[in-house]
Specification:
alpha/beta; TIM Barrel; seven-stranded parallel sheet; two-stranded antiparallel sheet; 10 helices; 9 strands; binds NADP nicotinamide-adenine-dinucleotide phosphate
């Protein structure tokens, strides 16, 4: 894991973390027991860049930082414009590093187009087997889940699931969790958006479904809201040096959350975010303190 190395002479900065010999925090996927790093990365907007050498080089450095710091899951979707192609470009540049957990989605009303998207995604990422494919925003989910199960049986896919965000369609998601045999569900969960704690996270635990938390920073709004305020002194007890780490550790310390997928277009931000993969996670008492602290800001 985290064995990615750059082509010799690339001259990119050496980063700390995995290379310091510390083990990243991991959690198991309930359906298999496979343990994955609790910090993944998103690609919406941040990786939808044109065929511009400078923009592509920055994304490759972000990917390299992510993998070298011990990251695993990269989340994308055909909905994200060029993001899958840009991820694929970066992975090729990096020599297809070990440790990648390739997670993408199917996003179309058409069942036939969904089949094509599965094939296209494998080509764009440059992988024979996708680790995870999810039905994006529950669109045409019944038909797509059938396709995904077929592809899983054919060995082209390892795990299947569905996604939502922004707290939308939680009732429907609840029914799907009760009825379908899924490996993963993706939903919005962060320190201010905690509705999922009521029913969806307990249901995911009951049915043995891994949970990916999207929008960990509410698309930067949380960082903008809190960054003018100091971190509490006790954040040092869980090795949080900045607000992004505080926000990410809150999310992934929920017992029913498997990983969070913050997105960034800045190498230094990726460095900060990956710091949340190391050191202790808050316990239930500290999680309550974290919520109380931000509510007063
Ligand atoms: N329905 C779905 O399936 C669904 C819906 C929403 C999201 N998602 C997935 O979840 C991922 C994450 O959600 P998101 O992209 O909406 O929002 P997010 O991860 O909550 O926030 C991304 C924003 O945070 C900023 N940021 C990241 N790290 C930072 C740092 N250390 N310091 C300061 N700013 C930082 C980024 O700006 P910079 O570029 O300046 O760093 C970016 O604007 C998506 O990319 C996507 O993969 C899935």
């Amino acid at each position: 894991m985290a064995g990615a190395t750059l082509a010799a002479g690339a001259g990119w900065p050496v980063v700390a973390g995995a290379s310091e010999g510390r083990e990243p925090q991991r959690k198991p996927i309930p359906s298999s027991g496979e343990r994955i790093p609790v910090i993944g990365m998103g690609t919406w907007i941040t990786f939808n860049v044109p065929e511009d050498p400078d923009a592509l080089a920055v994304r490759t450095r972000i990917l390299d930082t992510f993998i070298r710091r011990g990251g695993g899951m990269i989340d994308s979707s055909p909905m994200y414009g060029r993001a899958e192609a840009v991820v694929g470009h970066g992975l090729r540049e990096l020599g297809h590093p070990e440790g990648l957990f390739a997670a993408t989605k199917v996003w179309t009303r058409s069942t036939a187009t969904g089949r094509e998207q599965h094939k296209k995604s494998r080509e764009l990422w440059g992988v024979d087997t996708l680790d995870l494919q999810q039905v994006h925003n529950l669109q045409n989910w019944e038909a797509h889940l059938e396709t995904l199960r077929e592809r899983r049986a054919a060995g082209e896919l390892r795990y299947i699931g569905v996604t939502t965000s922004h707290g939308r369609r939680h009732d429907e998601l609840e029914r799907i969790l009760q009825r379908e045999d899924l490996d993963f569900v993706q939903l919005t969960y962060n320190i201010l958006d905690r509705e999922a704690e009521q029913r969806l996270l307990p249901l995911a635990r009951e049915h043995g479904v891994a949970v990916i938390a999207n929008r960990p920073f509410r698309r930067k709004a949380l960082i903008n809201q809190f960054q003018g305020h100091p971190l509490p002194d006790w954040a040092a007890e869980i090795e949080c040096a900045n607000w992004p780490q505080f926000l990410l550790k809150f999310i992934v310390s929920h017992p029913d959350v498997t990983c969070a997928i913050p997105a960034t277009s800045v190498v230094a931000h990726m460095e900060e975010n990956m710091g949340a993969l190391y050191g202790p996670l808050p316990d239930a008492e500290m999680r309550s303190r974290m919520v109380a602290y931000v509510q007063d800001l």
